[in-house]
Amino acid sequence: MKPLLAKDLATFLDRFDNFKNGEIKNINIISPTKVLITFTCQDKARGFNWISIKLEFNNISDAKLIDSEKIGLINLNEGISIINNQNMFAFGIGKCYNISSTKNSICFLICSDLKYSENLF
Question: CA-CA distance, 105 to 83, in Å (whole number)?
């Protein structure tokens, strides 16, 4: 896993077009403060080929997750949002503009450490 730094966040989200029209494959709760979410999405750096991305959220302070049997019902037409504010990362489904709007998402996580890995589709 590679750390996702705040300064690289905009480039990361642009590369994967905010995961628009992608799919959440799995939400794995490792511990109360660590969650791993696996996505499939298109990668601009690879000619828009589909790849698998794992996001690892560490030191979670707040969250609302979806039951595993409902993951297939999540619509990522608007993609995801990851916002960095005051050394905290806020993840949410759909377009979110700040931490407050992220907390209104159907699924959100707020953490202090975010990592990712790229895998084959």
Answer: 13
